[in-house]
Design brief:
This protein is an alpha/beta fold and 440 residues long. The protein is globular, with a radius of gyration of 23 Å. The strands form four sheets. The protein has a four-stranded parallel β-sheet. The protein has two domains: 320 residues, TIM Barrel (Alpha-Beta Barrel); 71 residues, no CATH class. Its EC number is 3.2.1.35. It is an enzyme of class 3 (hydrolase). Keywords: Disulfide bond, Glycosidase, Hydrolase, Signal. GO terms for molecular function: hyalurononglucosaminidase activity.
Length: 440
């Protein structure tokens, strides 16, 4: 069997069961021989951080309702009126002069990165950073959300195809007697060079002016494993997309954190598909996190939502919480960020749904994702206790069973959650978490 290169995972098209086993074996080999140390936790001794990035402040303004976010270690509202938050997201209109085309096809700030002034952008971006993050000792998450175009030519498809069209038009206007193939190649080179300069330059500015913050781009990396309706779907990232992610080494090497997203759809009724979708996206981020020139792995903070992508006010089931946030924790992500837009507080009824005080126990157990932080913390506690008790290898199986029982008892005592663990599905997921922590 060929050796596994340090910092990389191999992917092959094999039967699902075999793929899962092979994936875990590769993870173990990678962990044992190639893994860099993790960066110290952002907050205290919290190895898995819970962050809130949704506009709950609107609940106070619209309905005079105060909501405690004490379950989250850091929080911030994405609304532009707020500054100095320890979770700061920079949308397209909040950081410099980001060039893009709006929905009507009108160019904003030049439309294309090669048609816009990088110097002017960085000058404005410096002022924007000082405004939204006034503290030079900022120690939070700084997330840049630029979604209109991607820095790689071949990844600009569908609505993003306009960036390829307009780039080619610029070249065709500037050069005579060139073939269509030459036009496209020149357009590709100029677009990708300028896109890299914009993204890399912005990250460099952020890390220089707020060096203690964790800087990165929302949705990066992306494994593009969206073909969930395929008959044999197992969530594996396409080989072509893995290669493209490797080509973005300059981006990972300029970042100080990675922010992949796990937005799942309710229409994907098979929750196992959601598990495979989430698992492979997190694994791809962790793989890339180890490839940089930094002496530690970049921390991965997974962006997710309270609700489903196609039905925002249908809150994630307990099973899908485990398959997204729980799986992220088990695989080694540094934390998760709950994102939401103004739809979350569009009505009093909608707002109260996940925060109904009389039903708080039920919500902690099934709807509010921060409960997963408690779950992971309790699993780790149970594992530590179990490791002390399990000194001999022959007691290994008994030790794990004891940990599972201890975990169930601890969860009930700490959260008062009326959760049934008798189902095979729940037991399998919890044992999966325990097994992963036993290996670490």
């Amino acid at each position: 069997m060929p050796g596994v290169p340090c910092g990389a995972l191999q992917h092959h098209t094999v039967p699902v069961a075999c793929a899962i086993i092979c994936s875990w074996l590769l993870i173990l080999v990678h962990s044992a021989f190639c893994q860099k140390p993790a960066k110290l936790p952002l907050v205290g001794r919290k190895p898995f951080l819970a962050a809130w990035n949704a506009p709950l402040d609107m609940c106070k303004l619209k309905y005079n309702i105060n909501v405690s976010l004490d379950l989250f270690q850091i929080s911030g509202s994405p609304r532009a009126v707020h500054t100095g938050q320890n979770v700061t997201i920079f949308y397209a209109n909040r950081l410099g002069y980001y060039p893009f085309y709006n929905e009507q096809g009108v160019p904003i700030n030049g439309g294309l990165p090669q048609n816009s002034s990088l110097e002017a952008h960085l000058h404005k971006a410096r002022k924007d950073i000082a405004h939204f993050i006034p503290s030079e000792d900022f120690r939070g998450l700084a997330v840049i959300d630029w979604e209109f175009w991607r820095p790689q030519w071949d990844r600009n498809w569908n609505k993003k195809y306009i960036y390829r069209q307009r780039s080619s038009e610029l070249i065709a206007q500037a050069y005579l007697n060139v073939t269509d193939k030459q036009v496209e190649e020149l357009a590709r080179l100029r677009f990708e060079k300028s896109a890299k300069e914009f993204m890399q330059g912005t990250l460099k500015l952020g890390t220089q002016t707020r060096p203690h913050g964790l800087w990165g781009f929302y949705l990066y990396p992306d494994c593009h494993n969206y073909n969930v309706h395929a008959h044999d779907y197992n969530g594996t990232c396409p080989q072509q997309e893995i290669k493209r992610n490797d080509q973005l080494f300059w981006l990972w090497n300029s970042s100080t954190a990675l922010f992949p997203a796990l937005a799942i759809r309710k229409g994907h009724m098979d929750s196992i598909h959601n598990l495979h979708f989430s698992q492979n996206r997190v694994l791809e981020s962790l793989r890339l996190a180890s490839l940089t020139s930094l002496p530690y792995e970049l921390p991965t903070y997974v962006y997710t939502r309270l609700g489903y992508r196609d039905e925002a006010m249908a809150f994630l089931t307990q099973e899908d919480l485990i398959h997204t946030i729980g799986e992220s924790a088990a695989l080694g992500a540094a934390g998760f960020v709950i994102w939401g837009d103004l739809n979350l507080t569009s009505s009093r009824v909608r707002f109260l749904t996940p925060f109904d005080i009389p039903e708080i126990s039920q919500n902690i157990c099934s709807q509010v994702p921060s409960s997963t932080t408690t779950l992971v913390s309790l699993v780790k506690t149970a594992v530590l206790i179990g490791k002390k008790k399990k000194k001999k290898k022959k007691k290994k199986k008994k030790g794990r069973q004891g940990i599972f029982k201890l975990f169930k008892k601890t969860l009930l005592l700490e959260t008062h959650c009326p959760v049934e663990f008798s189902s095979k599905s729940n037991q399998t997921q919890l044992k999966h978490l325990i097994k992963v922590f036993m290996m670490t």
